[in-house]
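The records we work with from here on pair a chain with its fold. Here is one such record, which you should read through line by line:
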Amino acid sequence: MAVTGPPGPVMDRDEVDRALARLGAEHKAVEDSLLALQDHAGRRLLEGAALTGTTQERWAATERTIALLWACFDAYTDALRAAREVRARRRWPGSEELAELTERLCGESVVVPDASAHGAPPGSSGGAPAERFTLEGLVARMNELYARSLDVVVSADAVWSALPARIDLLAAELHRTRSLARSVGVRPGEHPAGDDLEAITEELTSLRAQVVSDPLAFWRPAPGSSAPGVGRPDTDRYDRAARALEDVRREIEAVLQVRQDSESRLLRLRDLLSRADRTLAEARTARVEVLSKIAASEVPAVSGPPTALHERLATAADHRRHARWHRLSPLLEALEREAEEELLRARESLAAVTAPLAVRAELRGRLDAYRAKTARYGLADDPVLSERYDAARRMLWSAPCDLRAAEQAVLRYQRAASEVLSAGGHG
């Protein structure tokens, strides 16, 4: 709907004809726009819907605006028809007729109900003040009323076109996820994911009902734009529900994966605990050996088998037999972590228990290495070296072995061997 430019203050025949043509084109454009608005799918939906909240209030006002818009159009139509009738009296209008046409086409000759009161429809408030417009001013007023009405219709239609369909698709996905959840025993009151599915179901039901009855509550106009229907549907609540459902879906898929690979995971857990048991048994045997062969040494105690883990592993196997996948999933994850830690502790215990034997073996190796070195230079039979070697060897090859004393004996032999080798020029 464009606004025509103002003609001159006094019009000749050509100016009158051009103005009538422009105003006729405006009339056609206004009529087409009003008919399009009348047939707009969004308007029909608004008329037939049970509205609430913001949409109910704005649509009630918009219905009054549309009624006023038609009243303005009717007044415009009558005024244009009257001007055309004056112009049709003569092919060459006289000065009085030109003056009348100038007044009709340029003056405030059109009377309509008070358009500044965005209220009652025309004729509904007896005695209500009226406004006078030029035809061009009335077009501008109709443009304003039309834009305001179209904004409500287009905005509501945009929300209805976008959100309910997306909510329905998400609800279908929710139904599939709920079926999967039931198949693995995830139910409300028994598993957090089951409670989440119930909450998402309630949210989608509530959201859809609100979107259908109050679409304008979910419309966000574009900042800085005054064009009708420029903006976007507010999808924040929908997006939160979609993210929540995706989180639940991933959790359900994890439970489904447990159903598929639980047997292999249970076998691996049994193997881990068996290795931990064997390692601890080896550590206990080694501790007995160390205590009998090594004197004056701190040998740490060895813990017993991981009985609690074995009991929980039996519980996991029972969950699998009875298809309690939602309970098996977190239990398997915890058991896998703890079984790895138990095997590591068993290995650390074995290493700590056998450390004195490793020290003794290192001392024996060091003693024999220095003995071999002195033998290469023919010094193995040196009396001092022989005496110190025999003393260290008796300590290292006797039980129980005093590691501290044996280490000192090895050091004494090393120092003596070093001195003898240096004196013979072999250092």
